[in-house]
Fold:
Amino acid sequence: MKEPLLVGVDVGGTNLRVGVLSGHELVWAMRRHAGFSEICQKVAAPEALGAVIETLVEAIGEALARYPQVQSVGVGFPGFIAPDTRLVTLSPNLPGLLNVDLVTPLRARLGLPVVLENDALAAAYGEYLLTRPRSGSLLYMGLGTGIGGGLILHGKPYSGEHGVAMELGHLIVIPGGRQCGCGNRGCLEQYASAGGIALNYAASGPVTLESQAIAALARQGAPRALSAFEQAATALGTTLAHVLKIVDVSEVVIGGGLSGAWPLMEPAFLTHLDGALIPALRGRVKVRLSNAEDRAGMLGVAALSQTHANAPGILPQNKRSP
Structure:
């Protein structure tokens, strides 16, 4: 039996990825700069929401024009997604989007069932589906504009009672530290995301650079750049060790745009991870880079769109006309 065609959308603060999938196979994909973080910082919330919706409709519409037989759409979005209403209750890296409804306008414009899920949880599920052999449970840590986390427990995505489970980027690592978009201070992503690394670098000298430029300097051995990544790795390793003491999974996958700089962080990360783990877990947790080639988020949320295609109160029962 031929697998149905599904659309998976992976929304980031900077970039947007749209894919058409048949089972685990990525049939078609596109990537574009969306700049949602910048938009949300510059304009009022209603205008920003409208821009987000228009960009999504345009990008998904391109996929549907090529593949009109698509049956459902899944959107992985950076923010806290209420499990009952599917509202985006808060998106720390897209300021102003509070208790907003993306599902209703998207399904009305697209004429298809639409599922909305946290982007990191969607990526975690995609990684789980691609893992062979499967361990049953998996923790995903996405490093990018922010830091996301997703937990798969016994084969099922776990979002928590309020949709905020595994918000690793908002664990406080330095009480009273840098202001975070979530409203607290000292959160992990203020020190270990792409923006956090830029802040680490800026704190030690007069010149400010973006994380990609800092990574280039670090690869050349520049001490200040290496220190910025080491600070990030220390925070990541220590934080993950504490999380593992709670969830006790045997596999952790590192993904996201910043994972391309993982060699700059891995040594310090592993040192601090091992140092903060309890002896019973040392040597028993596999940490690996994602090998999904940027498709985990699209695959995960597309699969969830099919799984929940008949969920009452979330998805429409009508189909788009051919």
About this structure: The radius of gyration is 19 Å.
